């Protein structure tokens, strides 16, 4: 029985490769392609799509993988490429870092009474990251080289603030989300000055995410963030870190 199984397996593999497997299989060979037209490479995207890789690349920290074949590639002619690259790169890094912060908080407080609140905010951050993954492909923007660092730093900040207790975690949320909301407002002003019609889709995305980050900020205040010991010191320190992260992620 074992000897008989070998040829059958080889035959099956050959069928999958060429759709023919010798006499008696009932499978017809593929029709010849017209001369002068090379056969498509295995796994290639349809011609109307832009293929960037042979398969999905996992994002560090468990975020949504980058879409590798974009059906909505944005025409590059006429856009301010340096400005758009900077905006999308830093926003992707910010949402990536926010995901890692909430992951760290959930690792400590996931089973506490505030766990569902943190999870709800984290779910929105996952959606934000997924969207910026798509925008990076559509606008052909490379991610910051600092993602591995933000991967660790974000988780440490989230877990460290959660170790201060529920109020400490919420104080971290207030500080971070306030910084991100302010940063998004600056980007909105920049895009409006550039051309609000040309960047309409990007403006809509940033405005929506700005509003949701502001909601997270307000949730933190509702959960007694300001009652954290040394709240002002903690908030200032976190926001200084956010400003440094924004500055670096825009540029490298």
Mean pLDDT rating = 81
Helical stretch tally: 7
Q: Quick one: biggest sheet?
A: 2 strands, antiparallel
Q: Which fold name fills CATH's third level, the topology of the domain at 80-251?
A: Ferritin
Q: How much of the residues is beta strand, in percent?
A: under 5%
Estimate the global geometry from the Cα principal axes.
elongated
Determine Rg (CA atoms, Å): 24 Å
CATH architectural name of the domain at 80-251: Up-down Bundle
Low-confidence region ranges: 1-28, 42-57, 64-71
What's the CATH first level of the domain at 80-251? Mainly Alpha
> How are the strands ordered across the major sheet?
1-2
Derived structural class? mainly alpha
How many strands appear in the DSSP assignment? 2
Give the CA-CA distance, first to last residue.
61 Å
The portion of residues assigned to helices is 55-70%
- The helix/strand order is HEEHHHHHH
Features:
252 residues, mainly alpha, Ferritin, two-stranded antiparallel ribbon, 7 helices, 2 strands, 2% strand, elongated, disordered N terminus
Quickly describe the structure.
The chain has 252 residues and is mainly α. It has helices at 2-18, 81-109, 115-138, 147-163, 166-194, 200-222, 231-251, and strands spanning 50-51, 69-70.
